[in-house]
Amino acid sequence: MQQMMKSTTQDENVPKKGPWTPEEDQKLIDYIQKHGHGSWRALPALAGLNRCGKSCRLRWTNYLRPDIKRGKFSEEEEQIIINLHAVLGNKWSAIAQNLPGRTDNEIKNFWNTHLKKKLLQMGIDPVTHRKRTDLNILANLPQLLAAANFSNLINNPWENALRLQPDATQLARLHMLHNILQVLSSSPPSNLDALNFLGPNFRDHQLQEYLRMQAEGLLSSGQTVLETKDIGHIQSNNTQNLEITPQTLFSDCHSMKDTKVYANSNNQYGTSFPVPQPTHLPPLVPASPECSTVNQMDDKINPNDISNHSSTSTTFEAWGDLMDDEASENLWKDIIDQASSQPWSIS
DNA sequence: AAAACGAACAACCGCCATGTG
DNA sequence: ACACATGGCGGTTGTTCGTTT
């Protein structure tokens, strides 16, 4: 209550906060129409407003500007936003430049309140713009539980609860590996050798784990089984030069395959795809955006990625965030470091 | 009728990049 | 090269309003 009083009782020296009154709006409009905004910092005093310059700027750019289009977003605008978001991520200002009359703030709000939900209802992850697969993890739960000794669970529930957590982490890692292997094995056979870029530690340790889990049926049933001969092939060719590209490796992560992005000198983007399509591989999609630790990955999808690979290293950093734990921190750091040092990774 | 709740959106905050002296 | 000012940006919070109980 005291806080309420504080905000309503205006100190002359402290710039006012909160909603703008029609009178304030009119003062701002009048001043800018007569003089232009000039320096935003100087504007409030000159316009007779008890606001900070920043507040005036935001009020003008987001609400009062005469070229602002208000009202509901059209279907076409919706589609443009969705398409651009798939490419640009949360680059609201860049998206706004392709929607005349709409502000970045308006688009951001519209995304957060409408489009995000709409995509979720359609079963599309609003972060990755791919079909959601977080249920895949849930689908594995019965197998995970089966893997744990059920009688022990009854006798000693706490010990088993502690055991189960690392198993889940390991499973997540193996899913990651599985996806990498699938991408590699779907490429020409020589590219399978590229797995070696992950380094001997990774290869020996994780492949063994992968095979073990596969043998024990801990990988989800719909996934392609990697044959042992392929593993042997990988293991026997350590020295071959690498041809793998981020596009190859991440074709599973990003739906950029058929996407063309155009950018003009005004930083305006255009895309030539309707809606990103799922690829043939089981996607490597984080769970819901709200609880995912790899949300940042969507930021890695930007037009620059298409023309060069400047953000590849940060993509691997995101992987690092996902994968890290104390037990195998060094192992995964090795992987990330090695991947980052590849020719296609520009730091 | 009114309290509780949730959706929508305006506004703010903090960080960062850029320009300027 | 450095410090400072300014403006842009994305994330978050606060307020309002409609709906439900």
What report would you give on this structure?
With 347 residues, the protein is mostly helical. The chain has helices at residues 2-8, 22-35, 43-47, 53-64, 75-88, 92-96, 104-121, 134-147, 150-155, 157-186, 200-215, 228-236, 246-250, 303-307, 312-323, 329-340, and strands at residues 261-263, 269-271. It has a two-stranded antiparallel sheet with strand order 1-2. The model is unreliable at 1-10 and 135-347 (pLDDT under 50). It binds a DNA duplex (21 and 21 nucleotides) through α4 and α7.
Distance between the termini: 52 Å
Strand content: under 5%
SS-derived structural category: mainly alpha
Element pattern in H and E = HHHHHHHHHHHHHEEHHH
Q: How would a textbook summarize the main sheet? A: 2 strands, antiparallel
* Low-pLDDT ranges: 1-10, 135-347
Summed over residues and divided by their number, the pLDDT gives a mean of 54
